[in-house]
Amino acid sequence: MTVPVIMQQQAVLRPPPPKPFYDARPKLADARQIERQVGGWQCSATSVANGLQCIGMAIHQTDVINLMNSGSVPPATNDPPEADAYDPHPRITVANGLEAGNAYGLVRVLNHPNGFGFAGRASRGKLGWDEIKAIAGTRPVMMGSHTWDHWTCVLAVSPTGALRLANPAPGWQGVGDEMDLDQFERFSPFWVVWIDP
Predict the structure, then answer these.
(1) Span 28-46, pLDDT tens digits
(2) What is the distance, to the nearest Å, from the Cα of residue 135 to the centroid of all Cα atoms in its chain?
(3) Stretch 52-60: mean pLDDT, rounded?
(4) Which end of the chain has less Cβ packing within 10 Å, N or C?
C-alpha cells in the first residue's frame, strides 16, 4: 500500500509595515489635494485641517471651526499661567479669523480631550526659519503671522530649501505653495503650531 505524501509550503505572514505618523506625499504630488479656504477668514482652520489630513484624519476646515467655537472645549483659565495666554470665545470669527493670533486657543483645542485630543502633543511658539525647516515634513506644522495676516500649513522642505506649503489662499501677498527665506523674513515673526508624534 502506498501512502500519499502531501507537501505543503508554509508562508510566513508578516504584519504590514507601520504607517508613518506623517505623510504629506498626496498633497505634495497633487495640489488638488490641498484644501483651500472657502472664506477670507478661514486660513487658520484650513491650515489645521491640511495638517491633520497628513496624519490620516478626515477633518475639514468646517470641522475645525465648529470644534473651536462649539463650547465643548471651555476657554482657558490660564492653565498653565502664561503671559500671552489669551483664549477668547468664540476662537474664530467671520470678522477677524483666528481671534488670538498667538494660537493659544488653537493649541488648547488640539490638546483638550473634548477637542482633537492630542493630550499635550500640540505646542506653539515663535520659531525661526531653521527651527521650522528642522521639523517640516515630520509632523503637522502650521504657521501664521500678523504681518502676513495669514496662516498656512508647512508640508516639507523643497529641494531648493524653501518651505513647501499647503497654502489655503495661494497668492496671498505674493506667496504661493512655497515660501522662500526672503518672504519668511518679510513677514516674520511667525507663531508656529506643531503636533509631535
Answers:
(1) 999 999 999 999 999 999 9
(2) 12
(3) 95
(4) N
Residue 149 DSSP code: T
Return the beta strands (E) in the chain as ranges: 92-93, 97-98, 122-127, 141-145, 150-157, 163-166, 178-179, 190-195
The runs of H, that is alpha helices, within 18-172 are 25-29, 43-53, 61-69, 104-111, 129-135
Angle between helix 43-53 and helix 61-69 axes, rounded to 10 deg: 120
Q: What is the pLDDT of residue 10?
A: 64
Residue 52's pLDDT is 96
Q: Is the pTM of this model over 0.90?
A: no
Tell me the CA distances in angstroms from 140 to 6, 8, 193, 197, one per residue in order.
Answer: 54, 48, 8, 9
CB 178 within 8 A of CB 133: no
Q: Average pLDDT of 153-169?
A: 97
Amino acid 34 reads: I
Could you tell me how many helices (H) and strands (E) the chain has, helices first?
6, 8
More confident residue, 86 or 136: 136
Complete domains list, the chain, with CATH: 25-195 (3.90.70.10)
Q: Are 180 and 106 in contact (CB under 8 A)?
A: no
Task: Determine phi and psi for 57, rounding to 5 degrees.
Answer: -90, 135
